[in-house]
Amino acid sequence: MKVNALIEHDYLLLGVMGDPIGHSKSPAMHQAALSAMGLSGAYVPLHIRPEGLSDAIQAIKVLGFRGVNITIPHKVEVMKYLDVIDEGAQRIGAVNTIVNDNGKLTGYNTDGIGYVRSLKEEACSDLKGKHIVVLGAGGAARGIIHALTGESPGSISIVNRTSAKAVALAAEWSSLGDLRGYGEDEANKALLEADIIINTTSVGMFPHITEIPVSPKLIPEGIVVSDLIYNPLKTELLRQAELRRCTVHGGLGMFVNQGAYAFEYWTGQAAPVEAMKEAVLRSFQ
Ligand code: ATR
């Protein structure tokens, strides 16, 4: 990965901008990372409303923040205020991490690469040749599908409630691999040969924890089933997949690894992933 300038300041100022922001587990996670690395600094939650985003981005420079994470609803809008946008983030169309190099702001997207690192570490070490089914075709799906295309999978089938969005996304990135778009009514066709199913929709997220994005009987036995949702840690989709002897992978690893990549961009040092994961788990208790 590309490593930016090493720490120049004694005190590392970091934060996350979103609306709302109170629920974010990023401050606990990154504060734990700073402590584990023995770095002095702070990672603060910044409640920025859409009308304040432009000023808030300028403030990164004025206040000397080394970087910030960007979360809902600013990931797309923020792009127009940055000096440079990394190629991956440009393609995905969203930025979740900003690095400030002496007043020059660069935007990255670490969601997809964080997800893929987690999937490979925890559930499936080699994605080459695998037939992957992605449920959903929104912003989260874009980041993940983009990162997956870098792993030479056999195919990526996108299944979405609004089939036109799945078909359009498959067409947009047809040069990156064998991508196909399907509507929900064609899920059975897409799932027949699946090695890995990845849910990127919000179906099953707290408080709607009994909902499931695909009929359990369509899940092939013994495959890998992954869910981006980390609240709850084990969604109904993963519960049903376990009953079908699948290897299951929850969203906590993605959250931690997108943060780890951001931390690495800011500091130029390997992130203390275990300490970060423990901090997030503690914040659930
Ligand atoms: P995100 O950035 O989290 O991906 P998004 O861009 O709004 O959010 O995309 C949400 C995705 O979840 C979409 O694929 C959406 O399907 P539509 O394109 O048909 O809207 C999907 N989604 C959300 N709620 C859903 C539901 N109840 N059933 C099925 N799909 C749902």
Notes on the structure:
It is a single chain. With 285 residues, this protein is of the alpha/beta class. Helix content is 36%, strand content 20%. It folds into 2 domains: 129 residues, Leucine Dehydrogenase, chain A, domain 1 (Rossmann fold, 3-Layer(aba) Sandwich), CATH 3.40.50.10860; 138 residues, 3-Layer(aba) Sandwich (Rossmann fold). It is built from 10 helices and 12 strands. The strands form 2 sheets. Strands 2-1-3-5-6-4 form a 6-stranded mixed β-sheet, with helices on both faces. A 6-stranded parallel β-sheet has the order 9-8-7-10-11-12, with helices on both faces. Helix 1 runs antiparallel to helix 10 and helix 4 packs across helix 9. The protein is globular. The protein starts with 11 loop residues before the first strand and ends with a helix. The N terminus is likely disordered. It binds 2'-monophosphoadenosine-5'-diphosphate. 2'-monophosphoadenosine-5'-diphosphate (ATR) binds next to helix 5. The site of 2'-monophosphoadenosine-5'-diphosphate (ATR) has 14 residues, from helix 5. Its EC number is 1.1.1.25.
